Amino acid sequence: MTGSSLERVVLVTGGSRGIGLACARHFLALGDRVAVTYRSTPPPAEDERLMALTCDVTEPDQVEEAFSQVEARWGPVQVLVANAGITRDLLLLRMKEDDWAAVVDTNLSGAWRVAKRAVGPMVRARSGRIVLISSVSGLMGVPGQSNYAAAKAGLVGLGRSLARELASRQVTVNVVAPGVVDTDMLRSLGEARVAEMKALVPLGRVAAPEEVAAAVGFLASTAASYITGAVLAVDGGLGMGL
Ligand code: NDP
């Protein structure tokens, strides 16, 4: 089921652009059927095996509806990539309750919600792959990102707890921690900030979204069948040793 070219049913949250869309394209290239969720703008309609669904991961009813639609068309989700994320960077003294709550609800609780919905059929099938997209920010801490870093660190605890819960059912749960990746999220920081961040990366450049997708694809493959509870950094060495 979790082989390399077996028409698996994959669901990627926040798959309309950036890392999520790169993940979707990675799985499509392997022959999988891929549902992507988004809030506002759908991904390009580029493949008949790509299903785009509106689903805000902060809304439990929308999560339920998205999974139901995928199951009705293709059957249960076999590979889940919890990727949807936002930032609202502010120093602590300026951060409002809503900035904290929105970031934690999307990045951390959203992943919990979709994992909770996905695992029932995976447990019954005695097979499944879950990959949570965290961030090097959650491992290092970043000034101005107390909300985001806390949520991303939370994904490690979530992922490892689920890895232990689900291991006996052959469902693996792993975390990918990207560093600085060339997407809208990064570009919104402005050229000067991106240049500063790039200068800290041992490999000396930002990542392409496809480089993160390759790691996600690996963790979802049979080659990774004995890997669960891992945190895989895809950060050009930025968080080395953490
Ligand atoms: P983008 O901002 O480019 O894309 C984010 C995606 O998430 C979009 O598809 C967006 O949909 C979706 N999304 C946001 N909020 C919600 C929500 N409430 N419900 C459903 N979908 C939502 O981000 P990236 O591709 O850069 O980031 C993807 C993931 O990788 C995030 O979790 C991010 O934290 C993480 N990451 C990114 C890094 C980077 O340098 N870019 C570094 C480390 C981690 P819509 O278009 O509708 O808003």
Keywords:
single chain; 242 residues; alpha/beta; Rossmann fold; binds NADPH dihydro-nicotinamide-adenine-dinucleotide phosphate
Give an account of the 3D structure.
This protein has 242 residues and is an alpha/beta fold. It has one domain: Rossmann fold, CATH 3.40.50.720. Helix content is 44%, strand content 15%. The protein has helices at residues 18-29, 60-74, 97-125, 136-140, 146-166, 184-187, 191-199, 209-219; strands at 9-12, 33-38, 50-54, 79-82, 128-133, 171-178, 231-234. Strands 3-2-1-4-5-6-7 form a 7-stranded parallel β-sheet, with helices on both faces. Helix 3 links the parallel strand 4 (79-82) and strand 5. Helix 1 packs across helix 8, helix 2 (60-74) runs parallel beside helix 3 and helix 3 runs parallel beside helix 5 (146-166). The chain starts with 8 loop residues before the first strand and ends in an 8-residue tail after the last strand. The model has no long low-confidence stretch (mean pLDDT 95). The structure holds NADPH dihydro-nicotinamide-adenine-dinucleotide phosphate.
